[in-house]
Amino acid sequence: CPCPLPRGDCSLSRLLRRLLSARRSLEICLFAFSSPQLGRAVQLLHRRGVRVRVVTDAQYMGLRGSQIGLLRRAGIQVRHDQEGGYMHHKFAIVDRRMLITGSLNWTTQAIQNNRENVLVMEDAEYVKPFLDEFERIWEEYNPINYTFF
Amino acid sequence: CPCPLPRGDCSLSRLLRRLLSARRSLEICLFAFSSPQLGRAVQLLHRRGVRVRVVTDAQYMGLRGSQIGLLRRAGIQVRHDQEGGYMHHKFAIVDRRMLITGSLNWTTQAIQNNRENVLVMEDAEYVKPFLDEFERIWEEYNPINYTFF
């Protein structure tokens, strides 16, 4: 399903369906995450026992409407960058076999009003480098590596 | 070559090499375009006779450092949205057969400092929907369709 995203509810329900198919693990690597529906879906997966890990951008996670605080309070592990540049990825990996990536940040604005694209791919050739990038970032953003000055 | 992007010159030269392989056509659909090196590459292709078409976001094209004005002055066709939402895509299509897409806007900030990904794909299955989306946007943003109020 490689597809530019139609706007609005249709694209949201397609994305929700993909996410809610997760049975074991969900890696999320998102510059901006403020969609309440997608936030609730991620919390539901966490409660079902799916191992959810979230990486996000430090500058954006505190903005009004961000879901990141809610996810943390629900007990989901979140890590963020500690750099000048943005953590600008917008991808998720379901059960280590399905990659969801594109231009879309998980915000209501983007889903409803923007021109966006989302690719869904299950070929290991595409999934593997994104999984590797996630693990690299996950370690790099481990709080034990923080530098204080 | 599906790959999260290493930062800096390496990723820029890889992207330049892909672009400069264009012989007939180049479609560019970019939220933000301010990299001088990538701007010069696009102008070079235009001078070589490659048919270059650019779609961009209205709110971002006028920002300081944007390449859009320079491209227009060089005689390259540019169209932009006339909407409230963002034209948030970040893709290019070389010779109607190679898709370059991901999280990367063509800005020096993104290339040098951000965590980004760029996918390069030649399967028609992936290229076709993006070509279709480009043609759809190209017609939709045709100035003859502007509404004034």
Structural write-up:
2 copies of one chain form a homodimer. Chain A is α/β, with parallel strands linked by helices and 149 residues long. Chain A has a single domain (11-143), classed as Endonuclease, Chain A. Chain A contains 6 helices and 7 strands; from the N terminus they run E-H-E-H-E-H-H-E-E-E-H-E-H. The first copy, chain A, has helices at 9-20, 36-47, 58-61, 68-73, 108-113, 124-140, and strands spanning 2-5, 25-30, 51-56, 77-80, 90-94, 98-102, 116-121. The first copy, chain A, has a 7-stranded mixed β-sheet, sandwiched between helices. In chain A, strand 2, helix 2 (36-47) and strand 3 (51-56) form a beta-alpha-beta unit. In chain A, helix 1 packs parallel to helix 2. The radius of gyration of chain A is 15 Å and the shape is globular. The N and C termini of chain A lie far apart (47 Å). In chain A, 44% of the residues are buried. The interface between A and B is medium-sized, with 35 and 35 residues.
At CATH level 2, the architecture of chain A is: 2-Layer Sandwich
Number of domain modules of chain A: 1
Shape label of chain A? globular
Q: Distance between termini of chain A?
A: 47 Å
Short summary:
Chain A is of the alpha/beta class and 149 residues long. The first copy, chain A, is built from six helices and seven strands.
Task: Please render the helix and strand layout as text.
Two copies of one chain form a homodimer.
Chain A: E1 2-5, H1 9-20, E2 25-30, H2 36-47, E3 51-56, H3 58-61, H4 68-73, E4 77-80, E5 90-94, E6 98-102, H5 108-113, E7 116-121, H6 124-140
Parallel strand pairs in A: 2-3, 3-4
Antiparallel strand pairs in A: 1-7, 2-5, 5-6, 6-7
